[in-house]
Write a structure and sequence with these properties.
The complex is a heterodimer of chains A (491) and B (363).
Chain A: H1 21-31, E1 38-45, E2 50-57, H2 63-75, H3 84-95, E3 101-104, H4 107-115, E4 119-123, E5 129-132, H5 162-172, E6 178-185, E7 191-198, H6 204-215, H7 225-233, E8 244-246, H8 249-257, E9 261-265, E10 271-274, H9 285-289, H10 292-321, H11 329-339, H12 346-366, H13 372-389, H14 395-410, H15 415-450, H16 479-482
Antiparallel strand pairs in A: 1-2, 2-4, 3-5, 4-5, 6-7, 7-9, 8-10, 9-10
Helix pairs in contact in A: 5-8, 10-14, 10-15, 12-13, 12-14, 12-15
Chain B: H1 8-24, H2 38-57, H3 68-75, H4 77-110, H5 118-133, H6 135-160, H7 178-189, H8 193-200, H9 208-234, H10 237-240, H11 244-249, E1 253-254, E2 258-259, H12 261-291, H13 297-314, H14 318-361
Antiparallel strand pairs in B: 1-2
Classes of the chains: A alpha+beta (491), B mainly alpha (363).
């Protein structure tokens, strides 16, 4: 076959690569026609001047790596065979110094390899292609986590690159039992994900279940871990998330050692872990770095903050509207004197302040940093102080909402359900007082108790009581004792 | 998904909460006046009677995959169907009775100014949601509720303990033993918890048979304690109140003016929610085990509409409602907690005898 042999159609036979270099080039060219980053480099090898061609996507490959490991050795190789099959084998086995190398047989494989940032090498007369791992796409470096703030411990956080994240995990869990299995999620754009677990600790059924749920993801483009989480969590109304996520590799590895299964999705700096229990919302890595008595104190603070974040505004509204006898007399006089001059009923005032707070918070998240200070001044001084001075809202209500906002920040991962529940309990308290609050709490309790992600009760280890799990629930045992008490998540 | 049994402690916690609610919503003014410590002693006597009522239930409390309905089905599907129909009525009536008491309570005490039914209806809706989540969820929620209730009781006894008046603790036998027995029967008869045990046993882990007496002991001690403090603190004044236990909680204060009755009442409403959830769950289980009904939404909707409609209809005549919800339960108790287990035991005995005779006749 010559270089200029005309070709009118791409390779046939189930997408299998053609032995004709020109046909393969036309087929790949058709797939990436119009793409400015689709590049090829044609050459001739050996004294027989056998045509060969490189294909890659500019920007996805590391040019230095290509030169040093692939093109330079090939071009500078002497005495290459003149027969096509032998030439291919020599380059594959003896010439190329790239350690990431594989063979491709179909057009689909070639396309996927290109899209993954690999360099493809075709030789005319051979129906296989060599794929060299030469990824060098731009990516964010490993830095400090933006969420999951901790006082002590590692400063490394997951990045957007799945390979970097895998290396962070592998570096911490130096065991051959650590499994990082690659799966593809999404129907349109084939996002890579890793299913991570420690063989012998994670339940085999749970691993299979996770893979099955990932395969059933029917979304074109996975923009973040939030797209994957609902499929892992399963059906049913859940107020609180039943899939854990973390930006910290040390936390991720710790959960793997408990027999949990982790999922790392390419392009997101958060890793998911299943199953996730309710008590985990109140644990942090710092608990394990500090003394047990202080860890207990911190966990109590977090639980108290959670309860305040949900119930405090509703309880205030309920007490002010229906149960003033529950407020001490001195405080009651102050509250009454503040409330009496405001134009809104207590419940409406609470809802208004709550919504304004959420608006300010959302603005703080979305706005450019340059104007951040201005918005802070507007939020704090104008909305807070001026509204009270003008008599639009009462000072006790502002104090309650400020306290609630601070307590919400203690467990920022739970902000979504806490925000909505706070609203619901303000309505419940404003409609039926403490009776409405308790009834709402009862329904919430039923919802929480009903969750069983992957067959593991969400309320473990308290309900049902698991003594081995109590080593690290509200109270964290000393490390010397924890090390003796093995806890594994079980079906 | 796992098929782990529900721990017996969780089921019994739900039954504990359910039984206590009956005491919380006890209405005193309908011809059941008692003197001195008769209520407290009556409650303890009720414990003895309840322990005696456990005897016919014991053969049906063995841990396993069978419950009384499945065992009855083996004898005769007609027997199982008939028993299931009685159980459906018993448990739905328990839901209705709890909702009716709460309706009377909210209408006369909590929201006497602007009476409407929405709180009771919201509770029924919440109970239907809870029942839809399943018995496992309800049992777990019951543990938390039981802990809250127990804490509330301790706080209540602690805060009103200083207001006990010795003169209220008159105790005499001038009317003989009959007031005590009367009180004991009424205290026992208002409950459907004993009838629940042989139905839920198939969902229970080990230990239900052993722990049931302990559950009865703890429950009736709490009931007795409530009755004692009611009489000791309020005396004859409590008998003039529609809900004497609620009147007791109005005496619970921290300091001079910080009242806690709203908090206690809110805990009772939570107990009512759990009670209604529990009986709706058991109602669904009866339908599943006897009639093979797997759908939850339709029966729950029907039960909710039926109970809600009955509550609204009877809420306009509080006297009739109270009499109805007080007169029917003792009969239902006798049938469900004693009659049905004895009937099924007798039927099993007859079947065993026939089998032995047939085996004896075979060559």
């Amino acid at each position: 076959m010559g270089l200029l042999e005309p070709v009118t159609a791409p390779p046939e036979n189930n997408n299998r690569l053609s032995a004709s270099l020109t046909e393969n080039a036309v087929a790949l060219g058709a797939l990436f026609s119009g793409c400015f980053d689709y590049k090829t480099r044609r050459t001739e090898l050996s004294s027989a001047r056998i045509p060969a061609q490189f294909f890659f996507l500019d920007g996805m490959c590391d040019n230095k790596e290509i030169f040093l490991s692939i093109t330079e050795p090939i071009f500078s190789a002497r005495s290459l065979p003149e027969e096509t099959e032998e030439l291919f084998a020599t380059i594959r086995d003896n010439v190329s110094v790239s350690v990431q190398q594989s063979e491709l047989f179909t057009l689909d494989e070639a396309r996927d390899a290109l899209l993954a940032g690999n360099l493809l090498f075709f030789i005319d007369g051979n129906s296989e292609a060599l794929c060299f791992g030469a990824q060098g796409y731009a990516k964010k470096a490993i830095g400090e986590p933006q969420t999951d703030m901790q006082e002590q411990g590692s400063r490394e956080g997951f990045s957007d690159s799945i390979k970097d994240n895998a290396s962070l995990v592998r570096r911490r869990l130096k065991t051959a039992e650590l499994r990082l299995e690659r799966v593809t999620v999404g129907t349109g754009f084939k996002t890579d994900a890793l299913v991570c677990y420690i063989r012998g600790r994670a339940d085999a059924r749970m691993i299979g279940d996770v893979k099955e749920r990932l395969e059933k993801i029917r979304i074109d483009y996975i923009s973040g871990e939030g797209c994957v989480e609902p499929f892992l969590a399963g059906k049913g109304l859940r107020v609180f998330r039943t899939v854990g996520f973390t930006e910290r590799p040390d936390v991720f590895c710790a959960k793997l050692t408990e027999g949990k299964v982790g999922v790392i999705v390419d392009g997101t700096p958060h890793a998911l872990t299943v199953p996730f229990t309710f008590i985990e919302n109140f644990t942090a890595l710092d608990d394990y770095q500090k003394r047990p008595f202080y860890a207990l104190f911190l966990r109590c603070i977090r639980i108290l903050s959670f309860l305040c974040g949900i119930f405090l505004p509703g309880a205030y509204v309920a007490a002010a509207m229906y149960h003033p006898e529950m407020i001490p007399a001195g405080m009651l006089y102050n509250i009454v004197s503040s409330v009496v001059g405001t134009p809104f009923p207590v419940m409406a005032e609470a809802l208004l302040v709550h919504i304004v707070y959420e608006i300010v918070r959302e603005a703080g998240l979305r706005m450019p940093r340059a104007v951040g200070q201005a918005v802070s001044i507007v939020g704090a001084l104008i909305i807070g102080d001026a509204a009270v001075t003008a008599g639009l809202i009462s000072a006790p209500m502002l104090i309650i909402m400020a306290l609630t906002a601070i307590t919400s920040a203690v467990i920022s991962e739970m902000h979504d359900p806490v925000c909505v529940l706070r609203l619901a309990f303000i309505l419940a308290g404003g409609t039926a007082g403490f009776y409405g609050l308790f009834l709402g709490a009862g329904v919430l309790l039923l919802n929480v108790c009903a969750q069983e992600p992957f067959g593991v009760p969400f309320t473990l280890p308290l309900l049902p009581l698991r003594k081995d799990g109590l080593r690290d629930s509200l109270v964290r045992r000393d490390w010397r004792r924890m090390g003796r008490m093995r806890f594994r998540v079980k079906f | 998904m796992p098929t782990e049994k529900i721990p017996a402690g969780e089921i019994l916690a739900a039954l504990f909460v359910s039984r206590l609610l009956l005491s919380f919503t006890y209405i005193s003014v309908y011809g059941r006046k008692t003197d001195g410590g008769e209520a407290a002693v009556g409650a303890l006597l009720a414990l003895l009677f309840a322990l005696a009522c456990l005897l016919p239930l014991r053969p049906f409390l063995r841990t396993g995959d069978d419950n009384i309905l499945i065992r009855a089905k083996r004898i005769s599907p007609l027997l199982s169907g008939g028993i299931a129909a009685v159980y459906v009525f018993v448990f739905l009536f328990a839901v209705f009775a709890a909702a009716m008491r709460i309706e009377i309570f909210t209408g006369t005490v909590l929201f006497s100014d602007n009476r409407n039914h929405w709180l009771t209806m919201m509770m029924l809706l919440g109970a239907s949601y809870g029942a839809y989540q399943g018995l496992r969820a309800v049992s777990r929620a019951a543990i938390v509720t039981a802990a809250l209730t127990a804490s509330g009781l301790i706080l209540l006894f602690f805060t009103v303990g200083g207001k006990i008046r010795p003169e209220n603790l008159s105790f005499s036998l001038r009317d003989g033993i009959s007031p005590f027995l009367n009180k004991a029967f009424l205290s026992l008869g208002g409950t459907a918890e004993l009838a629940t045990l042989p139905v839920v046993v198939s969902r229970c882990g080990v230990g239900l048979k052993k722990r049931a007496p302990l559950w009865l002991l703890i429950t009736f001690i709490c009931v007795s304690g409530l009755a004692f403090f009611d009489k000791a603190v309020l005396g004859s004044f409590g008998e003039t109140e529609l809900f004497p236990i609620y009147a007791l909680t109005t005496q619970a204060k921290i300091g001079e003016d910080l009242r806690l009755d709203a908090m206690f009442t809110a805990i009772w409403l939570l107990c009512a929610l759990i009670k209604m959830c529990l009986y709706l769950c058991v109602f669904l289980q009866v339908l599943r085990d006897s009639y093979g009904v797997r759908n939850k939404a339709v029966p729950l909707s029907a039960a909710g509409i039926l109970c809600g409609g009955a509550v609204i209809a009877l809420s306009f005549d509080v006297n009739s409602a109270e009499i109805f919800t007080s007169a029917v339960p003792p009969t239902l108790f006798a049938v469900s907690a004693a009659g049905i287990p004895l009937l099924v035991s007798a039927a099993e005995y007859v079947q065993r005898k026939r089998t032995v005779i047939r085996k004896g006749e075979l060559p």
